Amino acid sequence: MGATSDAVRRRRATVALKEALRELRNQLALLNHQVSAQIALKDVDLECLELIARHGPLSPSALARRAGLHPATMTGILDRLQKGGWIVRERDPEAADRRSVAVRAVRGRNGELFRLYAGMNTAMDELCADYSEEELALIAGFLRRATAAGQDATGALTGG
Fold it and tell me: Which residue, of 26, 36, 104, 132, has the greatest Cβ tally within 10 A?
């Protein structure tokens, strides 16, 4: 009976963890929606801006692949981000094709985003203060692995 009860407890713990991750995803989506509204962008625009800021400069096609979006959709997103002063499109000097463009975030705009996320950043600092360095490393490793699993699942759905 011990092995069965251990398996049941482990399954319940796994289900509880998955539920907590879904709740976190939902709450972060709501936060990002509010941030997007404050800066007059669509949610997907904010997500792409984050990708550009973290991984850019990127070509529009590379950004579309990272975001799992169709290139035609990406054109509209980049147009909105450029119109809002969030990104610039520049010639890619390293590309063989002289028409190639790279997209980069405008650094001077970061302060607006930091201000909007300040409450969450402060709350996360306070939350992390309750954990040891080893526990934080374990949690960070788990989240990186969960992110990779999500990327794999997304790739399977998008054919990428």
Answer: 36
